[in-house]
Amino acid sequence: MASLPAIFVSHGAPDLLLHETPSRAFLKQLGQHLEPPRAILIISAHWLTQVPTVSTAAQVTTIHDFWGFPAELYAMHYIAPGAPELATQVKTLLATAGFETATHPSRGLDHGAWEPLVLMYPEAGIPVMQLSLQPAQGTHYHYRLGQAIAPLRQAGVLILASGSATHNLRAFGAYSLNAKPPDWAKQFDDWLATAIAQNDVDALLDYRSQAPYAVQNHPSDEHLLPLFVALGAGGEAPRGTELHRSFTYGAFSMAAYAFS
């Protein structure tokens, strides 16, 4: 079985599914351009815990973890089979790498997980499990987390990390859906794309010191942490490939990258 890349996607605002945008069109075709995975391990910026926690549910449910959006979104569900055997593998790999771990028997998919999957694999037939992030930890920790689960790529598992290349919620609502991005968001997005293209892992891990407007684009780390899991899962010397770049609501970069 061919090795799959580790993928980072930006999920943007919760109404991603309701608007015809370049990022929605990209996600809709992304699954068709990948080898069919036997299972999906998804990491979302919206499941945050003290230690890495794996979902072991036999059937995943849909969490509508947002407020004030159109009723149409709350009627959407992604009912896929769970992947408890994969969850056991993930837990073993993490424990072997020295991570304390936990399990959650009934955790569903938050919108950072199910919304990209609705577009990528709408038939909901591929087993899926979710792995949590640790917001109190930093980029190096999540890079090591990704390295620990990297062997799964050779076993037909798609490692899908869902966050946001830029994420300043204070700017949400200040711009229309298709607004031109402000300079502070574009400069950060350009820096990120360049660092990934140059495979500059050290610069990426130190992004808060090296990237322009880093703190303005990420007042807190959690929406960029999935990128570092995908980066680590790319292997010993990960090579990054740009898959997509666009913006929604001005300040939200919808960039996506593959690492292998």
From TrEMBL:
It comes from the Bacteria. Keywords: Dioxygenase, Metal-binding, Oxidoreductase, Zinc. The keyword Metal-binding applies. This is Dioxygenase. Residues 33-255 form the Extradiol ring-cleavage dioxygenase class III enzyme subunit B domain. PANTHER family: 4,5-DOPA DIOXYGENASE EXTRADIOL-LIKE PROTEIN. The lineage of its organism: Bacteria, Bacillati, Cyanobacteriota, Cyanophyceae, Oscillatoriophycideae. Gene3D superfamilies: LigB-like.
